């Protein structure tokens, strides 16, 4: 009975291990020690090599997010458990939100230049030196280029060209619309400012998106400005600033068309698709209401809006505002943000959402698979427009190594369990045989006392077996 009991226990253990293997294969169990950053919105996201660095932001109307992290794009992960790693930031007292940032990369160093939208100190901005081989970010303030500084601007989006020039326009300060229509250009090589203010400059906006095309046109979409009677900029009103035109006449205007109602948009994001002429916008809100079509595409050749069909998109998905969008290869990676803007508690998100935008198709992904590439794009303008080869459709994370390890451990445990049961069985059999042998010898000795020493008597085998069986019951080992 004891042997059967141990065999049953071994079978139960094997069954449990098989269940664990099945769950691992289906990604139902994720073994991870990833960092869990605070939810936030109005933060910074910058792509440097194979990492997206997330800095600053606000959790609600009172608390700032002081923990910074990066998302590791060199490894597979599930959006339920993103590969976040904490980044030490010095000094700790910096609270950045509603700011703009651009990545500048040279042969020797990579810098994340952040123009702080601090409302109390309009002359402050920081240059952030990022050493990607260390999980530490050290800030220092650059005081060499304050001449011509336009002052703090919040709720803006900047772009950087191939020459390392960063373009600023519009913005918001101290709860006031900025009347300044000028375009400000910061040269990262000379640390100097240039101001362009032609007569045909449009009214400034804030909370818009700015996307630089390869031909030098900056496309401004949405936002809020000095418009009457509705200050919200309609998605049909596209502003264009051409960096290659003469400073006297760089601005132009396009009226975009669409088969669906466009409405206005603010707090949204925009990235340039891999074809380098389609702009993909996501999220935001339409005059404090949920937009009818959170995901839209603008063809900058025809200036026609379209609404793509997204495969596997959850029906109950909330719309995010003041999030970030980063293009890495043929994926659009949405991070953090504010759930449905009119939420009374300002419900900040800590989600990572991923769209596969390859070949003009869109698909919602729950699992990220690191693409195999020989060279990682980075440098000016690559934060939202990283260019790389077309990748195949991502599949669930590869847990093969983990599964093989668990399988080998299971085989080892099964072997040890079987060996234990076998040894236990042999020991019991040996003890039982010893007991039987001792009982037989004792019976023979007892019978020999009543027989003449010169005569040979053969004992009754059946009676002896009975005696041994009865006698062995008193020598049973438990």
Walk me through what this model shows:
The strands form eight sheets. Strands 1-2-3-5-9-8-7-6 form an eight-stranded mixed β-sheet. Helix 1 (2-25) packs antiparallel against helix 3 (400-448) and helix 3 (400-448) packs across helix 4. The chain has helices at residues 2-25, 382-385, 400-448, 461-472; strands spanning 44-48, 51-55, 68-72, 77-78, 84-90, 100-105, 110-115, 126-130, 136-141, 159-160, 165-169, 172-173, 176-177, 183-187, 192-196, 205-206, 209-212, 217-221, 224-225, 237-242, 251-255, 269-272, 278-282, 295-299, 304-306, 310-311, 320-321, 324-328, 331-339, 348-356, 362-365, 367-368. With 478 residues, it is α+β, with helices and mostly antiparallel strands. The protein contains four helices and 32 strands.
Give the secondary structure arrangement, pairings included.
Layout: H1 2-25, E1 44-48, E2 51-55, E3 68-72, E4 77-78, E5 84-90, E6 100-105, E7 110-115, E8 126-130, E9 136-141, E10 159-160, E11 165-169, E12 172-173, E13 176-177, E14 183-187, E15 192-196, E16 205-206, E17 209-212, E18 217-221, E19 224-225, E20 237-242, E21 251-255, E22 269-272, E23 278-282, E24 295-299, E25 304-306, E26 310-311, E27 320-321, E28 324-328, E29 331-339, E30 348-356, E31 362-365, E32 367-368, H2 382-385, H3 400-448, H4 461-472
Parallel strand pairs: 5-9, 26-31
Antiparallel strand pairs: 1-2, 2-3, 3-5, 4-32, 6-7, 7-8, 8-9, 10-11, 11-14, 12-13, 14-15, 16-19, 17-18, 18-20, 20-21, 22-23, 23-24, 24-25, 27-29, 28-29, 29-30, 30-31
Helix pairs in contact: 1-3, 3-4
